Amino acid sequence: MPRLPHDLLSYIVEAVYDPKTQWVLLTVSRETSRFALTAIYRELSFDSRDAASSYVTRDPKYMISLEKLSLSAETNPHLRFTSSFNFFSYTSSDLGNKCLRALLPFLINLRWLAINSTYVDPETLGLLPSTAKLTHLILGSTNYSSSFVDFVESHPNLYLFSVYQFRVPLESEERPYNATISPTVLPEIHSLKCPIRTNQRHTPFPEETKDEIVKAFPSVRAACFPEPFDFPGIASLSLRLSSLEYLRLDIDGITTPFDWNLLSTTKLKYLRLVGDMMPIGEPEEIAHSIFDAIGTMVMVDMSEDEEDKFRRFYRHSRTGFSVQISTSQWQPWWETVQPDIDKACLRHRDGLVG
User: Fold this and answer.
1) Those residues with Cβ within 8 angstroms of residue 184's Cβ, 6 or more apart along the chain or in another chain
2) Ordered structural domains, the chain, with CATH
3) Are 248 and 224 in contact (CB under 8 A)?
4) Could you tell me if 227 and 250 are in contact, meaning their C-beta atoms sit under 8 angstroms apart?
5) Sign of the dihedral defined by the CA atoms of residues 251, 256, 261, 262, in that order
């Protein structure tokens, strides 16, 4: 059998995304091994949630693999091929940050970065080289500080920006968003997830904080705010985000109905409510209240009992119907339903014209 040209062989191996197949290709020949290594390093994931062990035992094999990789990072030429890096671990943040500090300086072509569960300090993030043009940034917990702002501003191509929690040291007098991101630095951000509270301070952020968020993320089209939150604060912020069309609210722990009229002057087209609906009312009643209050709203999804199952309502529909919505970590939460939103907008427009 004649040998395939290197370019063709490289194209074939690069098209393989199944990890098991990639590892098999390592043993076929030197040529396939070389190309397979490139494919394997393209997406690095160290995720404790994938472990076969129980929640209690916390199988450490992913952490062990990460430690081994971090020890050889300086002499590992394959890290230059990494475009996606995912780290989710229940281990101590000190150990996680130690490994990340050793690895990040050598991820020169990174585009997608996710560090969940463990806390990561902004100084560690700042070790990522300037050649890494991040488009997706997902963080479980970090500090909003001048160092964090410097890091974010060094990646103007960010499209998806997600932080579950901003930490503030108990002894610190600083408040979150005390360092302002320049409003012209991040023109590409369309999907934003950020807290409007912190883990130590359970009062809503002041008005000037909302102004700072609006100035920093003027192009945001879709937003998600983790609970706990105060709904009037979210409504006020949504009004100021002039490009905002899609909103997701994680409502677990909410015990009283929302005043949807606070969103009446927004441009929202789509709303997703995730969590236990019972404390805030029946789904049909909630949907009708939302459509009555927000004239631009065309579609609403609400969680059902099963994971990834939602009750969908369209404007002018009397009842909802069940749909399944699944997204990957790197996919903006609204992207899979974008075609449905577009169709709903067309129906709404045709109805207005008719």
Assistant:
1) none
2) 43-353 (3.80.10)
3) yes
4) yes
5) negative
Query: What pLDDT score does 215 carry?
Result: 80
Three-state secondary-structure class, residue 127: coil
41, 82, 84, 110 from 38: Cα distances, Å? 5, 8, 12, 14
How far is residue 83 CA from its own chain's centroid? 17
Q: Sign of the C-alpha dihedral, residues 163, 165, 171, 177?
A: positive
What's the CA gap between 89 and 120, in Å, rounded?
Answer: 12
Give the C-alpha distances (Å, rounded to integers) separating 192 from 75, 139, 164.
36, 12, 11
Retrieve residue 108's tokens. 């020169």
pLDDT in tens, 189-234: 888 887 765 444 445 566 777 777 888 788 889 998 876 567 888 8
What single-letter amino acid sits at 278? Answer: M
What distance in Å separates the CA atoms of residue 230 and residue 202, rounded to the nearest whole number?
A: 10
Are 309 and 324 in contact by the 8 Å Cβ rule? The answer is yes
Adjacency order of strands within the sheet including 112-119: 43-47, 84-88, 112-119, 136-143, 160-167, 191-193, 222-225, 246-250, 270-274, 299-303, 309-314, 321-324
In one letter, which amino acid is 262?
A: L
- Tens of pLDDT along 8-17? 655 566 666 6
Report the chain's C-alpha Rg in angstroms: 23
